[in-house]
Amino acid sequence: MNYAMVKQLILKDWYLQRWAILASLAGVVATLGIIATGGKVAFLIGLILLIMVIISIGAHMTVSTIVTERKEQTLPFVMSLPISYREYTASKIWGNLLIFLVPWLTMLLGSLGMLLWSPSSRGLVPYAAIMSTEILLSTCLILAVALITESQGWAVAAIMVGNLAVNGIGYVVAHIPGIAKGMWGPTIQWSGAASAVLLAEFILIVLLLGATFLVQARKKDFL
Amino acid sequence: MNDLSVHFEGVSKIYPHFTLDDLNLELPAGTIMGLIGANGAGKSTTIRILMGLVHQDRGRVHVLGREMPREQAAAKLDIGFVSEDMRLYGSATLAWHMKFIRSIYPQWDQPYAETLLRRFDLKPQQKIKGLSHGQRVKAALLLALARRPRLLVLDEPTTGLDPVARQEVLGELMAVLADEDRTILFSSHNTLDVEQISDQIAFIDRGRIIASDNKEIFLDRWRRLRLVLSQEAELPSLPGVVEVGGSGRLPVLVTNRFDPAMVSACNDAGATVQAVDPMTLEEIFVANVHSRREKQTV
What we know:
Chain A is mostly helical. Chain A is 82% helix and 0% strand. In chain A, helix 2 (18-36) packs antiparallel against helix 3 (40-71), helix 3 (40-71) packs parallel to helix 6 and helix 5 runs antiparallel to helix 9 (192-218).
């Protein structure tokens, strides 16, 4: 693996997406600001906006850096560089994850900070951590599908599945007894169920990205 | 192997509706080869295999002594590639693209890049999306040339250009190539473009290389003979006849092994040679393709 080339390709995507990264960061900070105003309505609107912004960023970055690269025919330019498809895949996975981690970590740290700041909502910390990781998992799913299929149609389908999964998993997790029990309490109750769900999410992320590398390595036609 | 920049040995690639079949191709270092074929003949597939972007199902490919596709990253360090379907990033400037390529290729030649900027009349601060198609092709050529590649691969770079832009690009390319001793593979369905640039020619049709030789040999050996047969004379048997046209007493023969002695041989056989016409590369290509296709159907 030529790590210097991977780094150059990541820097390229960061440069080309610099305005989108800044806009996403501004969006996350603004929605956290709305939540921080304290009212119930503001909390609800801010939370919905925050989730929307984060999911949109992941989807936008993946589509812009992978699907659009093929659609706008800049992929032959990239693949004419001294790289193999391994380096290309690595740069797209790491580049997109790093880009996404900027607003995602801002969201995670911001929301956890606010929950810890307010004594009455500390019980929500495990749920917030699980749901934040679920959004990361959904983004990895979109990333994997976009890389493997290089198709806008499949990427859109993955975005829809990822969106539905956030809602569905959010509902299911909120009703797991070990998690639901202390969710609305003033203290953090880090149950075995919460840890298991979080661990499962991280395992799925690793499996998804590992499978993407494997499938990409077996590809015979790249253009 | 060392003096061959490109070496294809029995290369095949099978798609559901197209097969690149048992391709053998040698490109010696320092030569400019034109790969001519109709649309869908297999030119782009050949070049994609050469670049390691498509893996062959059978056969061996060596580019600059590197085995493809396994060593594609190392090989591509010495290859400049421009293709008709290649685009640069529209939202970035040419200057950014130059900086990006310079960061990757240690042999990037900045003074030469600046010379090319002037020669191509390009503004480095202009965004790619603001350039005309001709300017974009020139920008891509600049990025490929200034990295000082040992092998330059041009896949239909003039396709889609209007006649003025095409001549500009070809003119600039020829001027640039005159300075250098490079190995170049230039693919096109436009024989005029290839004729201007290349010294070696390979014809490809339906996934097969049907002829490959020096351009001058092609132009010297291929002739169209216009004959007039006397009443009792038969059509003389001449070497290398690939096409017989005309009518009755006025046959027109196309040969790929022309020799001035043929004229006297015809006269001896009772056929008067009215004209011996040289053929353009396009006519040679078309005659070659027709002849091969007829053989295939027989």
